[in-house]
Design goal:
The protein folds into three domains: about 55-140 and about 150-170, Translation factors (Elongation Factor Tu (Ef-tu), domain 3), CATH 2.40.30; about 185-325, 3-Layer(aba) Sandwich (Rossmann fold); about 340-415, Beta-grasp domain (Ubiquitin-like (UB roll)). About 30% of the residues lie in helices and about 25% in strands. The protein contains nine helices and 19 strands.
């Protein structure tokens, strides 16, 4: 065989492979074309419905929802998803992945009456025009303590059934994933998976090519929430990387099947696995988890603008000095500010390192009712008798005139609060 014949054979082989590739791509395109709605009216209805959902404005006050479904989401049967549909059957406004709903609950009281309780729960699914979903874990009483079990979570599990009516405020919250194409790291512990599910479902549905990592910390396989759903997403999307981390696995739990890492999520694990890229980190979990991971990310060199978190009590997270400086604008640091609690007849000097008035009050022994601790539910609304305040970020709840939300407030001058 001459060199010319060999070249012709090689060229023919390349052309044949190219033809096969183009043929397969054409066939896939044809299948997608055949499966896409061919009727112009049907296509118009899809686009119209999408546009209608986007353009719907959030409602004010509370709106009545009915529980349409309840689904247990873990082997321990301690976590339940509630699917909520509006009684008025109107289209629901789109929310930002990571936001929450605020519920006004009428709990049974010891005197055979009822007691109103405000609580916030994260939305756990991508936006939909006709339902919202929240996923709630039953909170038992801590072992060996005098604390009572979680009142609202146990109320949902024990008293909220299919057909129950609930009063719900529109989606709110500032812990939201952005719409950029930057790769995303989701880190969560326990029930902190709920806003991550919303973020994850949106990312993989709307932008399947988006690189997403999920580090999910649980104690063992029985606490894994929506494990089959997460595993399905992991197998279907090459750009999604799931790492379940078990801190106290059962003896029968198998690494590689029930989890990928034995131990807690820490910076060493992240540094060992993550490529050198500019990621945005979204973190949700108990305070000890965030107190460990957030400062470690900052020390690793992750910019403060790329670290987003929501804790079970976010005010308890201490930031590094550089992060706090970036978040807080000090005003008149040489001027003494005094916070007076009128009903308690106590006064304390405000420190500019304090994060908000709710945490400041609790640290000084002042009891304050609180819920979301993020400016969304209004539970910590308190009368401002004198002085001026500013908000860390605009609250989602609109407080009454002459009041403030302690969880997102800091004093600009000496203030007197009705507490």
């Amino acid at each position: 065989m001459t060199s010319l014949n060999l070249l012709l054979w090689i060229t023919s082989g390349i052309m044949f492979q190219l033809a096969v590739f183009l043929g397969i791509e054409y066939w896939r395109h044809w299948i997608r074309y055949r499966n896409f709605p061919s009727d112009k009216t049907e296509v118009g209805e899809i686009l119209s419905s999408h546009k209608e959902n986007i353009s719907v404005a959030a409602w004010t006050g509370f709106r009545t929802f009915r529980v349409d479904r309840r689904i247990i989401e873990d082997a321990a049967q301690s976590t339940c998803s509630f699917y909520l549909v509006p009684v008025d059957e109107k289209v629901l406004p789109v929310f930002q992945p990571g936001q929450f709903l605020t519920f006004s609950l009428n709990l049974p009281a010891s005197d055979d009456g009822s007691e109103q309780l405000m609580r916030c729960y994260s939305l756990s699914d991508a936006p939909c025009a006709d339902y919202y979903r929240v996923t709630i874990k039953r909170v038992p009483a801590p072992l060996g303590s005098n604390y009572s079990p979680g009142r609202s979570s146990n109320y949902f599990h024990d008293h909220v059934s299919i057909g129950s009516l609930l009063q719900v405020r529109a989606p709110a919250g500032h812990f939201c994933i952005d719409n950029s194409d930057d790769p995303v790291i989701l880190i969560c512990g326990g029930i902190g998976i709920t806003p991550m599910l919303s973020m994850l479902n949106v990312c993989l549905t709307q932008r399947p090519e988006h690189e997403v990592w999920l580090f999910y910390g649980v104690r063992n396989s029985s606490e894994l929430i929506m494990g089959s759903h997460l595993n399905s997403l992991d197998s279907e999307h090459s750009n999604f990387h799931l790492w379940v981390c078990a801190s106290r696995p059962h003896p029968e739990d198998v690494i590689g099947r029930d989890h990928k890492h034995r131990g807690r999520i820490d910076i060493q694990l992240l540094r060992a696995l993550l490529p050198l890229k500019s990621y945005h980190y979204y973190i949700c979990g108990p305070a000890p988890m965030l107190e460990s991971i957030v400062p470690a990310l900052e020390e690793w060199g992750v910019p403060d603008t790329q670290i987003h978190y929501e804790a079970f009590g976010p005010s308890s997270i201490k930031r590094t000095a550089s992060a706090v400086k970036g978040k807080i604008q000090e005003r008149e640091t040489d001027k003494e500010i005094v916070v007076t609690f009128s009903q308690s007849e106590k006064q304390f000097k405000w420190k500019h390192s304090d994060l908000n008035l709710l945490e400041f009050a609790e640290a000084n022994g002042i009891i304050v009712n609180s819920g979301c601790r993020a400016g969304g539910c209004g539970t910590c609304q308190t009368k401002l008798l004198s002085g001026e305040l500013s908000y860390r970020h605009p609250p989602d709840y609109d407080p009454d005139v002459g009041t403030c939300l302690l969880c997102v407030s800091i004093p600009k001058t000496s203030v007197t609060l009705e507490l």
